[in-house]
Write a structure and sequence with these properties.
This protein is of the alpha/beta class. It has 17 helices and 5 strands. α1 links the parallel β1 and β2.
Amino acid sequence: MTSLLLLTDMPVRGERLAKSLNLIRHTVVADVLDPDTCERTRDLDGIGVIISDVSFSQSSTVAALRSYIDRVRRTRANAEKVPYLCLLHDDTSRGNATAQALGAMCVLRADQAGYSLVNALGSMLKSDPAGSASIAADVASADAALTRIFEIGRSGGVIAPELIESGAEFIKTALSKADVQTWLEVVWRFDDITHQHCLLVAGLAAGFAKELGFNGADCKRLTKAALLHDIGKSRIPVAVLNKVGRLDEDEQRIIRTHPAVGYDMLVEHGYSAELLAVVRSHHEYLDGTGYPDRLSGRDIPDLVRLATICDIYAALIERRPYKEPMGAGQAYTILTNMQGKLDPVLLEAFRTIAVSIR
C-alpha cells in the first residue's frame, strides 16, 4: 500500500494531522527544518502523495521545503509523477504562486482543509469508492468535522448546524457502503478517546437507525444527535476528561455537568428540540435515576432512548491503551441487566447490531 509523505515545519501540528491521515494511508512525517529527520527518511519508494503543511512566511522555510521535494524527486525515478498537495497557510497571491512554483497539483487553505483534504487525497490515490480506504476517508472526514465542532466549543463560539450536517452525511455515506463492524474497526484506531467515543456512538446510531428501517431523513436526525451528544465535554477540563482511572467525587460532579452545558451551548442557535433533548438527556434513565433532570418514563423521548443505548454500549466497547476492550457479547449483557433503565423493546432490537460486532 502506498504511503503519504507529510512535510511540515511544525512537528506537533504535523503529527496531529498525521493521526487523521493514517486512517487513509500510513503517513510519514518529516520536519523540513530538521536535517536529522531528512536523513532518517530514506525509504521513499512507497510514497503515493507528497503533502506540505508549511508556512511560506519565511524564505528559508520555503527553501528547505523545496530542497526536501527535490531530494524526493532525485531519490525516485518516477517522483515527478508523484502528486503534491499543498496546505497553504499564506492565502495570498505570493503564497499561491509559491505553491505552483513548487509543483503543487492541488492547493488547499490550511485553516479550511478539513474533509476537503480527505476528498482531494482520495482522488489522488484513486481509491476504490467501495473499498476500505473509502470508508476510512469517510471516517476521517467525519472526524475533521468533529474536530472543528470541538474547537469551536472550546473557544466559546457558536457551532453552526451546517457543520453537524456535513459530519452526519459522511457517517451516513460510510454506513451505506459497509456495515457497523467496518466503521468500528476504523474508529477504534483513534487515540483521542472523546473523538473515538463520539464517532462510535454516531456509527452505532446510524447502523441502529438502518436496522430499525428509518428513512433517510430520520436516520440523519439520529446520527446528527449522536455525533453532537457529548459536545458539552468541550468545556470540561482536559485533566478530568482524559484522566486514566476512576474519577473522584469532585471530578464526577464536573463530568456530570456536560449534558446541561452542551444544551446551553446549542439552545437558541437553530437546533431542533429533539436534537437538544438528546444532548441534554442522554444520561437519563426510565426509572428516574439518571441526570441532569431525573426524567423518567414518558418524559424521555424515543430519540433519546435510542441514543442512550448506543452511548452506553459504545463506552463499554471503547479501546484504550491502558485497559482491555470489553467483548461485544459481554457489553450487551450489561445493557440487558440494566433492568428498568433502558427501553426493553429498543434494547431487543439493538441485539442484531450487538451480535454483529466482533
